[in-house]
Design brief:
heterodimer, A: mainly alpha, B: Rossmann fold, about 30% strand
């Protein structure tokens, strides 16, 4: 959302946008943005390459599914390569996709939550029956 | 010596890093005296890289030499596209409006001209695909170049005359304008500095990077960057109440009519326009009215003679000559001959007394 703002409303080039996003913040996204910016500047590689390299580095720290990783990789491939409107609509589309996945994950969690609760209750009942 | 190093560092930091690797490696080997006097680097698809300096063209060789005959360092279309993408800081969207006009201005105020196949949207150029040529034109700040002329522009110690600088492309209009702005803003002699607003449509006057002007425009100067002149002047008038507004490369009739409004509002204008003489400028659409109303009280005409000597002339509103200054400008480069008959172009350092005082690594033409 903030990156979309930097691109669409502030019209900042990606390097500057990522630097702004990382300034004065310590959350995961800011740390990622800072790493992309650092790699891009210090190693003189493209934003796309820096984005992919950073994702590899952060892979172990983010507990997300494979298809979500694919989406994040896809963002790196498109960032900066189209006009402002297209960048905005692409980032909006990506947010929508992540929202769908988040919803599915939440439903899955609720389903599993219920299942484990039922399993727990049945297990408890079984223990009581055995003890009797 | 320090100047030479800082100029080379500026070249490396602001331009070299974006160029294709082969060109970069070659330019690193090129004589510093050539690098610091570069005016243009031209990259054309399928053609060798060309350097332009001191009014002379030369082709870049992979060993860093500058030759009069085309070298074998051909540039591919992909390399050109990649170079422009790098100049755009990996962000096409941030430069899309500039690209549609055919050029972008990068950090340092250097202008990157781009041509290829335009892509149209709603009847206007929207993008440029299949980039075929890139022209990297170097911006230079020459502090003090306007100090003599600025004396003729003042009207008392707190006011100036509306002034138009006329010059053909590439003779230093923007450089002169920049130094005049600096003088007027800081003040000089008995002239107190005045609040000066600069509409820097192409980012060449102030060369703002992240909001910080990299060229010295004085301490009473406010810069609005990357905006059409008409809109920029309106915003400056409303928000900064300048005494003087400076703008580069007037030409659009819309800009000219906005200039008239600014003058009528009592604000002084210093502008530049492409042209070889006043007569040619007068005939242009929009300018005719400005001249009819005697909007300008001073003209500075820059020209160059056959000996490549600059002539800077100051005229009053009735076109009477007030002062003429001759400056030794670009000189023909000295050409050294290889033993094999080829010619290489040498920097001015080599010209002194006909002595080859610089890096003479290839003086025998053996290309070792």
């Amino acid at each position: 959302m903030e990156l979309e703002n930097e691109i669409h409303y502030m019209n900042r080039p990606l390097g500057q946008a990522l630097m702004f996003l990382s300034q004065g913040k310590t959350n995961r996204t800011s740390r990622f943005a800072r790493r992309v910016y650092e790699l891009h500047k210090k190693m003189e590689i493209s934003i796309e390459a820096a984005w992919h390299k950073s994702l590899e580095e952060f892979r172990s720290q983010w507990p997300i599914q494979r298809d979500e990783w694919d989406l994040l990789f896809c963002i790196g491939e498109v960032l900066g390569k189209t006009d402002r409107e297209s960048q905005s609509s692409f980032l909006f589309l990506m947010r929508e996709k992540f929202a769908v996945r988040e919803k599915a994950a939440e439903e899955d969690r609720v389903k599993k939550d219920k299942l484990y609760k039922n399993l727990g209750a049945l297990g408890g009942l079984a223990v009581v029956l055995v003890l009797i | 010596m320090q100047d030479k190093i800082s100029l080379k560092n500026r070249f490396v930091n602001e331009v070299l890093q974006f160029l294709p690797n082969r060109i970069k490696q070659s330019l690193i080997k090129t004589d510093t005296n050539i690098l610091i006097e570069l005016e243009e680097i031209r990259l054309r698809s399928g053609k060798p890289a060309m350097l332009h300096y001191h009014g002379t063209d030369g082709f870049l060789h992979e060993n860093g030499w500058v030759l009069d005959k085309p070298s074998n360092m051909f540039i591919s279309t992909e390399e050109l596209a990649d170079t422009v993408y790098k100049f755009c800081e990996n962000s096409w969207y941030a430069y899309q409006e500039d690209i549609s006009k055919g050029f972008i201005t990068i950090r340092g105020g250097h202008r990157i001209g781009i041509v290829g196949t335009p892509v149209f949207k709603n009847g206007a150029v929207f993008n440029m695909r299949d980039i075929s040529s890139v022209n990297i034109r170097f911006a230079r700040e020459v502090i003090g170049c306007g100090e003599r002329m600025v004396n003729y522009l003042t009207n008392g110690n707190r006011d100036i005359h509306n002034t138009l600088i006329v010059s053909p492309p590439g003779l230093g209009k923007t450089t002169l304008l920049r130094d005049i702005i600096r003088c007027l803003s800081n003040g000089f002699g008995s002239f107190s500095g005045v609040k000066t607003g600069v509409v820097d449509e192409r980012g060449e006057i102030a060369a703002c990077y992240k909001g910080f002007p990299q060229n010295d425009l004085g301490s009473r100067t406010d810069v609005i960057n990357g905006i059409h002149k008409k809109n920029g002047m309106e915003i400056l008038l409303r928000s900064m109440s300048p005494r003087v507004i400076a703008l580069d490369e007037m030409g659009n009739p819309e800009d000219v009519s906005a200039v008239m409004q600014v003058i009528n509002a009592g604000i002084r204008i210093i502008g530049t326009v492409h042209g070889y003489d006043l007569m040619a400028v007068k005939m242009r659409r929009g300018f005719y009215e400005l001249f009819e109303d005697k909007a300008f009280e001073r003209f500075i005409i820059i020209s160059i003679d056959s000996k490549l000597q600059y002539c800077v002339k100051v005229l009053d509103g009735d076109e009477n000559v007030l002062d003429v200054e001759y400056q030794s400008g670009r000189k023909h480069s000295y050409c050294g001959k290889f033993n094999n008959g080829g010619i290489r172009i040498l920097p001015p350092a080599y010209r002194a007394g006909g002595m080859h005082t610089g890096n003479t690594a290839v003086s025998d033409g053996a290309r070792k």
